[in-house]
Amino acid sequence: MVERLAWAAQDPLLQAYHDHEWGVPVHDDRALFELLSLEGFQAGLSWLIVLQKRAAIKQAFYDFELTAVAQMPPAKIDALAQDPQLIRNRLKLQAVVVNAQAIQRVQQAWGSFDAYLWHWVDGKPLVNRPQSQAEIPTQTPLSQTIAKDMKKRGFKFVGPVIIYSYLQGAGLVDDHLAGWRRLE
Questions:
Q1: What are the Cα distances from residue 47, in Å, to 6, 105, 151?
Q2: Helix (H, G, I), strand (E, B) or coil at 78
Q3: From what superkingdom does this record's organism come (predicted)?
Q4: pLDDT mean by block of 10 residues, the chain; 184 residues
């Protein structure tokens, strides 16, 4: 039997995300930007809501093409804040644009956003294999350090809890249960 975390058993969309994306190492800057944006949208909401709105969010933000998003004018954000297909929190919508600009600065300094992120784990995923969901923290000293650094670089919606969830989603941290095995 495939052992999923309890949060992933609630809905087929969550199951698919858990089984095929969560904890899989991501190295593409566009995909890393998308996930960071989705994690920001999740603040105060369920991951299921974010996944249900993911297609509309991708469309609204030009499939997370960094240059296009970084140049989005405030009027576009105003329009998105009225779209019921999206999470209409203006601060979260604005954060996507701000974070695109911050990623561009990181790319200039590091060569890629991928290089910046993965340096925190020496290029290798941290594999924890907890015995139960209760053993999985909501934040760690690593997520606190990264969150602090990202805030200094101008990122928004990057607190230590969001960043820990981001590290899990992007595969820098693998918190699948000890009995987990990915079915291909």
A1: 13, 28, 23
A2: helix
A3: Bacteria
A4: 79 93 96 98 95 98 98 96 96 98 98 98 95 93 98 98 98 90 64
Distance CA 52, CA 172 (A): 24
Tracing tokens 């993911």 back to the chain, one arrives at: 54
**Verdict on whether the full-model pTM lies above 0.90:** yes
Sign of CA dihedral 141, 121, 37, 175: negative
The two three-digit tokens of residue 19, written as one number: 């089984």
Residue 95 CB contacts under 8 Å (≥ 6 apart), including other chains: 37, 40, 156, 157
* Token reading at 58: 């991708």
CA distances from 26 to 13, 105, 145, 158 (A): 20, 20, 20, 18
The CATH label, of 1.10.10.2840, 3.90.1150.10, 1.10.340.30, 3.40.190.170, for the domain at 6-174 is 1.10.340.30
Domain boundaries, the chain: 6-174
List active site positions.
Answer: 17, 39, 47
